[in-house]
Automatic annotation (TrEMBL):
Ranges in a coiled coil: none
Keyword line: 2Fe-2S, Iron, Iron-sulfur, Metal-binding, Oxidoreductase
Tree of life domain: Bacteria
Name of the protein in question: Carbon monoxide dehydrogenase
Source organism: Roseovarius atlanticus
């Protein structure tokens, strides 16, 4: 067992972990932050995306010990303290970018990372970026529309596929 310390959603977090403990399990089981989902355990679905030192990471593909000393942001840490949603979260709501909601935390975290790196992506760039996230409900159209809207682009001319 080893002690790990990191900052999670702006607050100090620590816990004792086995060497094989995945970051997603530490976040969910030790810290009780269950917004980060476990979908596949093979880093294929993207439901577990969090930000580690500002970069999108699939938390099921990183050991908790590897996050020692880092700043981790989960979906619970995205909204402002008063509950105000980020533009991405608001756009997912406004453009119905979710259905069952299982993939939504990972999609939002990925979208936030995309817009940080590329503030005005094309529709094709959004679709390419989301290849690491699986949604079995929406068909992605409204997710893409929400991300484009969050970037400040006019989405009225985007037709359903």
């Amino acid at each position: 067992m080893a002690q790990v310390k990191m900052t999670v959603n702006g607050k100090p977090a620590s816990g004792e972990v086995e060497g094989r403990t995945l970051l997603v399990d530490f976040i969910r089981d030790t810290l009780g932050l269950t917004g980060t989902h476990v979908g596949c355990d093979t880093s294929q679905c993207g439901a577990c995306v969090v930000h580690v030192d500002g970069k999108a990471v699939k938390a099921c593909s990183m050991f908790a010990a590897e996050a020692e000393g880092t700043e981790v942001t989960t979906i619970e840490g995205m909204a402002a303290e008063d509950g105000t949603m980020t533009p991405v979260q608001k756009a997912f709501q406004d453009f119905h970018g979710l259905q069952c909601g299982f993939c939504t935390p990972g999609m939002v975290m990925s979208a936030e990372a995309l817009l940080k790196d590329n503030p005005s992506p094309t529709e094709a760039e959004v679709r390419e970026y989301l290849k690491g996230n699986i949604c079995r409900c929406t068909g992605y159209h409204n997710i893409v529309k929400a991300i484009l809207a969050a970037s400040g682009q006019d989405v009225t001319g985007i037709a359903a596929e």
